[in-house]
Amino acid sequence: MTIFEAYDGTALHYERFGDGPPLVALPGGPGMDARYLGTLGGLDARRQLIRLDPRGCGRSAAPADPASCAFDRQAADLEALREHLGVDSLDLLGHSAGALTAQRYAAEFPSRVRSLVLVTPVGRATREPDAAELAAIRAARAGEEWYADAAEAAELLEAGQGDPAALVRRMTPFFWGGWDERTRAAAFDDTLAPAAPWMREVFYRGAGAPRPVPMPVLAVAGARDGLIGTVPARLAAECHPRGRFALLEGAGHRPWVERPGEFTALVEEFLNP
Question: Which CATH architecture group holds 2-131+193-271?
Answer without folding.
Answer: 3-Layer(aba) Sandwich (3.40)
